[in-house]
Amino acid sequence: MTARTDDSMVRPGLRIAVFGAGYIGLVTGACLAELGHRVVVRDIDPEKVRLLRSGDVPIYEPGLGDMIARNKERLTFTLDVQETLNGAEVVYVCVDTPPSASGDADLSRVWSVVRSLEAASHLRAVVVKSTVPVGTGARVRAALDAAGLGHVGYAANPEFTAEGRAVEDFLHPDRVVIGADDDATAALISELHTGVDGPVVVMDVRSAEMAKLASNALLATKISFINEIATLCEKTGADVEDVARAVGMDHRLGHHFLRPGIGWGGSCFPKDSEALRQLASNTGYHLQMLSAVIEVNNLQKRRAIQRLKDELGTLAGARVALLGMTFKPGTDDMREAPSTVLAGRLLAEGAEVRCWDPMARPAEAEPWTWTTRHESPRSAVEGADAAILVTDWPQLKEVDWAQAASVMRRPVFFDGRNLLDPAVMRSLGFTYISVGRP
Ligand code: UGA
């Protein structure tokens, strides 16, 4: 997993300031330190900075804790902007860009970083890693010029790392995209990636910004497409798993992101697809395909509830167990998790909701405040009228389902990730429903 194994390969290293200690900032900071650079990561959250300074990592990301620990000589954390910028040659902007009330990305955190840069006397380049609308780079460029920082280069360096494998993705990427409008900045940011095992692709800033949004939109499209085909499989008696296998064997299409399920979630696909749609609307163009992709995904979560309702007659008074809460396994991230929509819908229908997840940290807010959390899948399904497998945690493959069926009030099981074997589950007495399988 490490990009560098031998100290003779350690390069002198640049001084880098990373703004934002979220998933992207922490992984970027730790990996750049691993590559030999001296990195200061700044966040506005005192508790986060305190944890990081004491050697704890506030998020779960495989390999990240070890990487931070072994690079502690080169990697520090602070709340202080001046300390962050002191001697910094490259500033990485990794702050979040949530949707604003208008639906456009809220860039206020990006602007607050840009406003602080006048104090950075050694600065050579500002790099935006946060996902931003196309055209943001040009606006930042103009702001830098207006602040007397015309000599400072600008680059867009979007991230393509997936949660749960972000460290691996950073060091061994399919590609590193660098958008820069001048050769010197492109060369500097390429140089910064020495040791990263993947091709560097240089383009103009706007194209790099668009490449990020287009990549996520196409990945989300593949999933929504196979989810629609799954619905059609249910109506025609075909098996979507076989269909996806055959389709994916065409090397032009590929197997990835053809797993049907309960819909995509997470901090990226929902936000980025909406941002791209909004960006198009702002230019007067309606992205028809992407709109359908988003709609299919919204429906997919609600279809799960409808199918349960069809089975149980009514959800009012039913006790339903949600198995898995995070938006995918291998992370503690609950952002835009389909489970939140399912829990909310079930409660609205009058069901009692109990849940299990090995890692989730749901917000102390509705709908979760109205649900009960259980220590094991077995305890969550005890006395339940139905269970929904929401997140394909590998632990769920190991559950003693025969025993689970025997303690449920009604053994109705909706496998929202096609994780389990239909024949086996039915032989254990479950009324087993899954996505697009007969
Ligand atoms: C995604 C992209 O995969 C990364 O390349 C990108 O850098 C990142 O967003 C980002 O923009 O920061 P991530 O959100 O971590 O990464 O998660 P994915 O592994 O892509 O999964 C997204 C959602 O799609 C999950 O809810 C997952 O369960 C679902 N999914 C994925 C499916 O339903 N079917 C599939 O075949 C694949």
Could you characterize the architecture of this molecule?
This protein has 438 residues and is an alpha/beta fold. It starts with 14 loop residues before the first strand and ends with a strand. The protein is elongated and about 70 Å long. The protein has helices spanning 23-34, 46-53, 64-70, 81-85, 108-115, 136-146, 166-171, 183-192, 205-236, 240-248, 269-282, 288-312, 338-348, 377-381, 401-407, 422-427; strands spanning 15-19, 38-42, 75-78, 90-93, 125-128, 153-156, 176-180, 200-203, 319-323, 352-356, 372-374, 386-389, 412-415, 431-434. The structure holds uridine-5'-diphosphate-glucuronic acid. Uridine-5'-diphosphate-glucuronic acid binds at residues 159-163, 216, 219, 223, 257-259, 261, 264-266, 268-269, 272, 327-328.
> Sheet with the most strands?
8 strands, mixed
Radius of gyration: 24 Å
Q: How many strands?
A: 14
Oligomer: single chain
